[in-house]
Amino acid sequence: MLHIIGLGLADEKDVSVKGLEVIRKAERVYLEAYTAVLLVDQAQLESYYGRPVILADREMVESKSDEILAGADEKDVAFLVVGDPFGATTHTDLALRCRQHEPPIPTRTLPNASILTAVGATGLSLYNFGQTVSMVFFTEDWKPSSFYDRVAENTGLGFHTLMLLDIKVKEPDLKALARGKIIYEPPRFMTVAQCAAQMLEVEEERKQGICSKEALAVGVARLGSDDQQIVAGTLEELAGADLGKPLHSLVLCGKKMHELEWEYVRGFAMDQEKFDEVWKQSYKA
């Protein structure tokens, strides 16, 4: 059986008791290491689990899944996922491959906390969130703005938008690749400030007021950990905010922000007086 196990958001101790029992008995243990990362390293996981952990990068999961599934129709294999097992379509695809395998490989999923639910720590109601949107790193010649359209749809309905920020782990250096050499770039993790700045940059082009300087937003970092950070303000303010180490996410507040939400979120405001002023002018129903 393939056990797809959610690890939660922070460290090795966030795994469920059921998940830990499976890990310690499994034939092999894989850790999906590219859609998200834990705040602890591989050695710390192995020490706590009492088992060696095989890092499964993008190439292995997407192109060499047969290695992961080998023998899983007869023995237990654990596939560990940061957050919740189905927080990324990659893991749905892996479960589908188990169904299509001959003979079919039975699967079991053990859920855990993910950013999609943990973001409720901001005080914004999970019932009032629309589509979740990904923000990728801009380059000099590639600045995709399709995220803006989805944010606009949420804004039109008054919904909050959770922005999942780009991470680059084991990314090949394209210039070296062109020379026939495989060299990986250092890991990079997008910050709340970078996300806010890119949103403002696209707003300059679109000019629809969706991601304006005065739009209210909440930046979060390392949710679920002992040193989690939550900061609220305008996008302009968040573009200059420093929330420290990864991982970061950002929420663009919807126009129908309830008074109860406002009362809670304002406690995280960088400038509470300004936050209140903007909310009363543009958000209060």
UniProtKB/TrEMBL annotation:
Family annotation (CDD domains): DHP5_DphB
TM ranges: none
Residues the record lists as binding S-adenosyl-L-methionine: L9, D84, G87, S114, I115, L165, L223, H248
Cell wall biogenesis/degradation is among the record's keywords: no
Pathways involved: Protein modification; peptidyl-diphthamide biosynthesis
InterPro entries named in the record: 4pyrrol_Mease, 4pyrrol_Methylase_sf, 4pyrrole_Mease_sub1, 4pyrrole_Mease_sub2, Dphthn_synthase
Molecular functions per Gene Ontology: diphthine methyl ester synthase activity
Keywords: Methyltransferase, S-adenosyl-L-methionine, Transferase
Every Tetrapyrrole methylase domain range: 1-239
Function statement: S-adenosyl-L-methionine-dependent methyltransferase that catalyzes four methylations of the modified target histidine residue in translation elongation factor 2 (EF-2), to form an intermediate called diphthine methyl ester. The four successive methylation reactions represent the second step of diphthamide biosynthesis.
Family: Belongs to the diphthine synthase family.
Annotated protein name in UniProt: Diphthine methyl ester synthase
Origin species: Hortaea werneckii EXF-2000
